[in-house]
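Lecture notes, unit on protein representations.

Consider one protein chain, 160 amino acids long.
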Amino acid sequence: MKFLQYTVLAIWGVFAMNLTVSAQQIPTMDFFHGQECPHCQNQRKWLPTLRAAYPDIVINEYEVWHDTENQALWAARLAEIGETPSGVPSNVIGDTLVTGFSPERILAAMEATYGPPAVDVATIEATEAEESKGLDLILILIVLGGIGLAGGIAFLGKKS
């Protein structure tokens, strides 16, 4: 009977260790980009959204159009997963390659590899849109204030 108890405990211990290791996997993405690439620049602007969705993410960025060492690293990294470089941005998430800037495909690869995001991306984007509206209003008020000030100075200048 004790043998059975120890066997069950041992199996449970191995299972618990596997859960701990899986839970500690840090989300990682290798982002290979070109300096002048407009799609890469758009992805760069979107990366804060990805970081908000996966707060522990490590994003390794490599410029590959002008840096020959990074070009070799790009080719080697893609060879590891059975791919070859074909364009930028190239995003390697686990063993998945996402070529081109596609938030939907990047998020799908992240979820398949690391699980669901900590925060829903739609919520992040809605919050960013609201913050942007607030900033837009502030900028409009500053511009209008500046116009009013310039008009007042011009008006006072004519009276003199």
